[in-house]
Model the fold of this input.
Amino acid sequence: MKVLVVGGGGREHAICWKLSQSPKVTELYCAPGNGGIAQVATCVPIKATDVTEMVAWAKENKMDFVMVAPDDPLALGMVDQLQEAGIPAFGPRANAAIIEASKAFSKELMKKYHIPTAQYETFTEMDKALAYIDQQGAPIVVKADGLALGKGVVVASTVEEAKTAVREMMQDQKFGKSGSTVVIEECMTGPEVTVLAFCDGEHLVPMLSSQDHKRAYDDNQGPNTGGMGAFCPSPNYTPELAAICEEQIFKPTVAALKAEGRPFQGVIYFGLMLTPKGPKVVEYNARFGDPETQPLLSMLDTDLMEIFEACVNGTLDQVDIRWKEGAACCIVLASGGYPLSYQSGYPISGLEEASKTATVFHAGTKQTESGDIVTAGGRVLGVTAVGNSLNDAIERAYGASKCISFTDMHMRTDIGKV
Ligand code: AMP
Ligand code: GLY
Done:
């Protein structure tokens, strides 16, 4: 099969790496790809968000299958257009990808179908929002409804802090239009766990549980990032909790989307909080997580192409999805200054040495004309190792990471600590 993967980060490298091992895949392409992906796939210089160009290229070059990984093209309806062009495509159509793109939509859905999540109210008038905070007390969570680069969530420990957040969003328009509607939520406590699940519109198969580390620095300090590392499985996610989540959250979500005429085909990302009152949904995403995908696919024993095809064909219940024993850990090596400002174009050394004991997924790299690999983004590499235990995987991943260097390289030293 001729297969195209859309995207160009560490997640897409892991997907291409796994697909390149499939006997079903004879030609593998990635658009736009990156310096590491180029080692396992042919990179095509089309932006992931350029829906028209991507569909035209896939048609012209007779792709048998397209996998759309990032949220933007999914929300823009790339899968819809590929399917309409007669090309089998993995990922939700735009009307199902909305569970990530709109917090208001997903909260409504959970309320309607009794899926456990934080109690909430939505406000478009500031006075009413402020009065609600007085009535509810603190701690309380204030969220800008729209997209706000991951900064639109304030977990406020006092009433004053919550009111300041509301004023900044609604009056000062700190996030522009994204903050003209705010969601005010009950503050949940407990460990956070992520479960990704393959979905064919009707059936769902959860992957191993995982956890990521969003803050830039050790001990969860510093600004939020796309993720500085991840591991799987999570020791916090017991078989008892898995059974509860499956019955109360996963199956009802898939059934709700189907009942709403928005069948979900692709990967659903369940961001969960294990509260004293049971597991509750913090957020849904409509795609594989980054960097969770790097350790997860390192643990997958089944042919990924076979799973993708089953999701598209509605036959996921007929696939036996198997995982390795043990655990996997991914350490992100970032450019100094990320997620704020940083420099690019620095040569990277030690890649070959690190690859002897770990898989080095490239996130932001570029191959120069002379064939050298240089930095080309905030998150540069995801060094991923599998071990017999979580500690073993962490040790191997850090051991390999220490072989690599580039100017101003930054990594957290506490990935995997739970
Ligand atoms: P979100 O953008 O909705 O995923 O929120 C970002 C982070 O804020 C989450 O990963 C949680 O750590 C925290 N958070 C969001 N909602 C709540 C809540 N209702 N209670 C406590 N923490 C929350
Ligand atoms: N690692 C978090 C995400 O992919 O949304």
Q: What stands out?
A: The longest strand covers residues 265-275. The mean pLDDT is 95. The radius of gyration is 21 Å. The chain has 13 helices and 22 strands.
